[in-house]
Amino acid sequence: MVEFLRKLIEGDNLWGTLDVSPAGRALWRRVRLTVYPPGTTSAERRSLHFAHTWPIGGAILGLLLMVTLGSAWPPAVVVVVVAALYAAGFWLGARLTRPLRNRIRSLVVVSVFVGGGLEEYGDALLLRETTARLRDLDARRREGGIDPARYEAEWAEIYDTLPTGRTTVQV
After folding, report:
1. Which residues contact 39 (CB under 8 A, 6 or more apart)?
2. Domain end: 56, 76, 102, which one?
């Protein structure tokens, strides 16, 4: 139960996120690996998770507020309140994560079907190796095969293999 609650408010992984999403009509998928700096605290992970999930979570909250307040308040007031709340969520997420954002490392790989074949843009090999190492690290942590100090040391080794700064993919 404790692990479930941690995942709910901090995210699936202690080290960061792995997002797989469609990137557009002609593109098959985009994979973005985001690795937090080693030593990221629970409070920092909660802030990063909030900022990461706010676009969808805030939209759902906004819709619920519109339905709830729509019959009691004038529609124009409801729209203004919901829009202000949604914008405030983005501001809050940016404010809470400001000290950490420049230290986060990320890697993006875009896969495209071109002429019947799959082409990958970005460092796909590094992405696959890093993702495999992080999954193995998490599996050993869940099984109790690694102590917290060793977990963070291996996380730091993986973090150091990733490029610094923002990564962009030219397609």
Report:
1. 152
2. 102
